[in-house]
Amino acid sequence: MRTFRSDSAKYVKEKGISLIDVAASQSKQRTLLRDEKNGGSRKINFKTIILPIVAVLVLAGAGVGGFFIFKNLQKPETPVYVLPKPPIIADEEIETTLSGFQKLIEGPVKTNRLIYLPIIKQSEEPKRLVTVREFFNNFGITPASGLVGDFENNFMLSVFRSTQNWPILIFKVKSYDKTFAGMIRWERDMPADFKKIFPIETQSFKDLSFADKEIKNQDARVLYDEAGEPVLMYSFFNRNYLIITTSEDALKEIFRRFSLSQYLSR
Predict the structure, then answer these.
(1) Residue 178: alpha-carbon gap to chain centroid
(2) Cβ within 8 Å of residue 180, ≥6 positions away
(3) What is the pLDDT of residues 60-74, one digit of tens each?
(4) From 21's CA, which of 1, 80, 168, 191 has a CA 20 to 30 Å away?
């Protein structure tokens, strides 16, 4: 044994190698012997190579997909609005604004055509209809105390084009008794107020007042000018709707449409 150790030390010294090199060489020999015993050179384990690559690709795909989904979620959608249906169906519908509807009222005369003029609030998105309060406030009109609160929020502005263009306002009322009392109180200021909205032709309302009249079996209140011609009137249909217009022909047409199911909104 001492002779073997002495020979090994002498060999290492003569070859100029270290004991670490010897140990590495022995480890390499043992590995080769083990591989030969197991059937030759080591085989490549594909699972250890392929699975990490697949995992990386899946994670990359998920990241890209998540980015585009997040981007689409962040993209603002174009607001969509749907106009509430008016109480009765008109022959035509033309969207307008607070500054533009009066030109449409004074448009070309047609034969017995009812045109619905929904007034749109353009400064907001999505667009919506102007409320009753916004409509009156725009013209500096202040109905009798509490009257606006007796109306539903939406209203119908139309023009009946017959021998002339007759403007019409229709309001859904919450309480007939309260609204009727409010209208009586408003009668004194109604002519001056509605002259800001409708093309009413009269010089002075000082000595004018409303009078009762039955039109198509419906009670109405009518304002006549100095020559005895009607210039403004209002009536309630079935105590549910208040109709304000400037012509008996227009009022009769609204009564007719309310009485026929084909003109009622579903």
Answers:
(1) 33
(2) 236
(3) 565 656 555 655 655
(4) 1
